[in-house]
Specification:
Helix content is about 45%, strand content about 20%. It has about 160 residues and is an alpha+beta fold. It has one domain: Yope Regulator, Chain: A.
């Protein structure tokens, strides 16, 4: 009798493998049920399972802000809330500052209605938007984060309407 244990793939793993197959490629290793991380254009991108088994998250890192002071992070948080409000009717991306002070953008997607090509397009879009937001952060530094309205205008053109 064999002592080998067989694990069933999660719906997330099945969807990722199917997407790779449709694109004519394969992941570099096993698909972790907790998500996949890869680098593209110098940015960390992740495809993560959602607590709802029908959904997944696509996340792209924008910037590591761990070295910034709390005052700057607080002002940035206000700008991000307003940016998310401005963008909610334009696209599905949201900007978040995580507990480790990493600025990311993410989009929640339905696995059933997202094709392999749609996933690839979404990743490309996220990487481009993350780069625009990173560029906008440079502009925010020049503004000293004193004027949230001006800060939003600085980053809205690329991130929201890009």
């Amino acid at each position: 009798m064999s002592d080998t244990t067989t694990f069933e793939l999660t719906s997330f793993q099945q969807w990722v493998l199917k997407s790779f197959a449709e694109l004519g490629t394969a992941p570099s290793g096993a698909v972790d049920p907790l998500g996949m991380t890869f680098e593209s254009e110098g940015r960390q991108a992740r495809i993560l399972p959602h607590s709802d088994a029908a959904l997944a998250l696509v996340e792209v890192e924008v910037a590591d802000l761990a070295d910034k002071d709390e005052g700057m992070l607080s002002r940035l948080a206000l700008v991000l809330l307003r940016l998310n409000d401005e963008a909610r009717f334009e696209h599905s991306w949201q900007a978040v500052l995580d507990a480790d002070d990493i600025l990311c953008i993410y989009a929640q997607i339905s696995m059933a209605s997202t094709s392999a090509e749609g996933l690839a397009d979404l990743l490309d879009d996220g990487i481009a938007r993350a780069a625009m937001l990173a560029d906008g952060l440079q502009g925010l530094s020049g503004l000293g984060m004193q004027d949230p309205a001006a800060a939003i205008e600085t980053i809205t053109t690329g991130m929201v309407r890009g």
